[in-house]
Amino acid sequence: MFLLNLKKRILIAPLNWGLGHATRCIPIIKALIAHQFEPVIASDGDALLLLQKEFPELESLELPSYEITYPKKGKRFKLKMLQSSPKMVKAIKAEKKVIASIIETHQIDGIISDNRLGAHNKKVPCVFVTHQLQVLSGNTTWLSTKLHQKIIKRFHECWVPDNLGDINLSGKLGHTHVSEIPIKYIGPLSRFSKKEAPIKYDVMVLLSGPEPQRTIVEKILFNEFKNYSGTVIFIRGTIDQEQIISEENNMIIYNFMTSSELESAINESRLIVSRSGYTTVMDLTKLSKTAFFIPTPGQFEQEYLAKRLTKLGYVPSCSQEAFNLEKLKNISDYKGLEAMDYELNYKKLFRLFEGK
């Protein structure tokens, strides 16, 4: 006797640009499993590897790489993106073909794409996850926003991981009026939970993001904190096959941590020094942490988020080039990030995949 698998199979496809798109899919994947869906993971590079480590029991598939890299100098970021656009367009076209094939060969009933522009198909309900309804790019913001919204309109729904009200995390990025797009605000997403824990580390350095900027900021922060008098846990943010732990002076250094390890370590850290990527902002807000942000040079979104949170009095920040230990002396002048109470009704959210 054969038992039919009646669970609807949902393809989860995060962009491989840093680790944030993948990590914020973790609570969605867990919710799908809890609501009797069968998630199938699809990505490339470190994003795919991270989710394979988190969910070794789930089926995973490789998608074409967008091959996104940063320039060494932030001011060349926009030029680098323009130069890379033909390669990205080619990858997106290839992605659409692969997605169409996966739908047929793997019996996919729906797609949740976190910023993968080609991960949609008319045959199944498709969701686009983004906190950027407006894409900042300096004097070309109007164009990058228009192009981004044109892509979003190819999906059935757009889920914005933020609050709808005045108290929100993304500011004008996720709260721009858009017509013709069914938008649902689903509240900040985080794989973490706040837990009462004794403080073990004075500072956690938490790194992530595409190269070469990840390595550049790692060298800057490593040189600064090797002379720091307090205890430091240094998470390099490289996803390797095996976890490597080493010690130097006052620092304990990890190449990466699993979600559960990282949750514990952040809860046990007094101050987090990190990029101002949106997923990091959501995670540290969920855990009500004190933080210091160093935006990736030239990435308008991170620069905007860091400046906004500094202006609102939550978190101090500075440019990569300007950072030194002196900058941490004014931490007490800021109130820190505060958790937002938001109860997401996943059962209602997932009705799209049930034809309701």
Structural commentary:
It is a single chain. By secondary structure, the chain is an alpha/beta fold. The protein folds into two domains: 9-188 and 342-354, Rossmann fold, CATH 3.40.50; 201-333, Rossmann fold, CATH 3.40.50. It is 31% helix and 17% strand. The chain contains ten helices and 13 strands. It has helices spanning 20-23, 26-34, 45-54, 77-105, 141-152, 213-225, 259-267, 278-286, 300-311, 346-349; strands at 9-14, 38-43, 60-62, 110-114, 126-129, 157-160, 183-185, 201-206, 232-235, 245-248, 251-254, 269-274, 290-293. A seven-stranded parallel sheet has the order 3-2-1-4-5-6-7. A six-stranded mixed sheet has the order 10-11-9-8-12-13. The longest helix is centred in the N-terminal third of the chain and has 29 residues, at 77-105. It starts with 8 loop residues before the first strand and ends in a 7-residue tail after the last helix. The model has no long low-confidence stretch (mean pLDDT 91).
